[in-house]
Please model this.
Amino acid sequence: MVIGAGNLATHLALALHRKGVNVIQILNRSRLAGEKLARRVKAGYHADFSAADFKADLFLLAVSDTAIEDVAKSLGLKDQLLVHTSGSVDMAVLSKASSNIGVFYPLQTFSKNKRINFGSIPLCIEANTHENEEKLLQLAKLISKKTRVLDSPQRKVLHMTAVFAGNFSNFMYTIAEDLLKKHGIPFSLLKPLILQTAAAARHEDVFSGQTGPAIRGDARIMDEHLEMLAKHGVYMEIYDLISKSIIKHKNRND
Amino acid sequence: MVIGAGNLATHLALALHRKGVNVIQILNRSRLAGEKLARRVKAGYHADFSAADFKADLFLLAVSDTAIEDVAKSLGLKDQLLVHTSGSVDMAVLSKASSNIGVFYPLQTFSKNKRINFGSIPLCIEANTHENEEKLLQLAKLISKKTRVLDSPQRKVLHMTAVFAGNFSNFMYTIAEDLLKKHGIPFSLLKPLILQTAAAARHEDVFSGQTGPAIRGDARIMDEHLEMLAKHGVYMEIYDLISKSIIKHKNRND
Model:
């Protein structure tokens, strides 16, 4: 049973279906997306949440963060296992909707078009009982090689750090691309550096791989860069703040 | 002829040597590193820059930015082709040292221990004559599949953008690792996201792949994250500034 038919719902339903899990129902308010996903995983479809089939072993809520609590209640469950899939929402928001609850959170950004290899995507699990945790872990291991039990506060920290490691890195690439474009230089020149930097990031050892003017304390280059960025106020601010933070971090670690 | 025996000098000399280029001399003030590199590429070694063998086709200066001008002059050249390897130094600093000058800049971070596959590292070329440019391009193409002619201002922009795309991304990973460690969560959970984000960065299209609370305008999550970061002043500042910049960038592009 999958509730939702957005990016995450689609990728999860397909991944489970491919591993032989019987997805019996897709519930989704919007008929077009719901029916399409239901066809792909050979499930029934209902627009009405109160039509949920209570025989399902698991109710997987893949809806937006703000909708989780209301949708959960509208299912009318009692003790059926109900999980949400959000990194930033407490498991406890489900507690009024069922007595067996949990979280099934895949740490990745999903876009509709890209085929996702779930095998390498970490799945973070939480549950209100050991038995539920075991059930969710077994399901998680079917589709992912990286599973991990995290409680709600830990999951929120992980979600926040993903903003730094994923979203903010991507914005660093964006700034680089933007500045290069203004000077007629192809962004492709930076691709090997970007890939190598990402590949080199190792557990417990990321800052030891830090290079560049800030970690070298090369004030001449930093000043030159800030001057070049004077026309781009926000980029200059970002350059300045991150450079100072790198220097501070270095001094703290020395 | 390679002047220097640091990371870049070592990787360049080895890459050229492997491609059959005859590296005839290594000049380096520090004997230990200089002799070691000279042995590896079967070259002569001198500590004294004035002992440069003028028969060399190319004098490749791989020394620190601030040493380039002085070392160049101390070679006592007239019209021998002399290049430096820095991203942030103007070609013109060589003009007093020879009448044939250029730049041979590999866009990558080099650490001593890692074996470097030069083939995928972009080599940016500049020269004061078309003939010199051709010579340098031919040499560059021997060791790299990505060569590009850039003038000094363009090279400086590229070097600056590499700070954003490489150094600053690495610091975003560092912040993530630091926060995860404080909560007993393994950094390895973020590795697939980091690699996927880097791999997804495509020319002319990086910002279209931007995800996360800022681009969604999800103020609830951003506030929650800022609150979680309240104990980590600098990280909070960085989160706030980059999030605001993403929102600004989005509005500009809309």
The mean pLDDT of chain B is 93.
